[in-house]
Predict the structure.
Amino acid sequence: MAKEKNELWEWTKALLIAVGLTAVIRLFLFAPIVVDGLSMMPTLHNGDRMIVNKLGKPDRFDIVVFHAPEQKDYIKRVIGLPGDTVEYRDDTLYINGKKYEEPYLEEYKNQITDGPLTEDFTLSEILDNDVVPDGEIFVMGDNRRFSKDSRHIGTIPLDKVIGDTSIVYWPLKDIRIVK
């Protein structure tokens, strides 16, 4: 009887440790997320399941998950970092006056015949500020015509960013690292 009791206690301890480690990993290191919507097409698809890395801070062109003003988590691409100027002219991105290529948009740009994928804008037209404020980032969805992003909700405070993501793990046929 004592042996059965001891074995039950060992299994209970192992289960408690496993649950505790899972909670710590999910709370502080990594978490799953499901892409909801089409704002990151063609890079990400509705229903893609991804891993969010909660370590580190976002860098330019990273795909990040953040708490949006609507009490919902959004997934978008970092375009502007604190202190950056951001401008779009003739469907071309300029950051701090320097032209940047966006290869992840080429598929959509090639399909469009009725104007630019991204309408012209400057930060001052959107934010009443010439630069991305300290401690905040400017984000945009890859599906520029159908994305609710910093052009609509403003810059995102870094403390609202959950983490960055680049690994799609579901559906199995679409497992990949996205850039």
In short: The mean pLDDT is 88. The domain at 30-177 is CATH 2.10.109.10 (Umud Fragment, subunit A). Residues 2 and 8 are 10 Å apart (CA to CA).
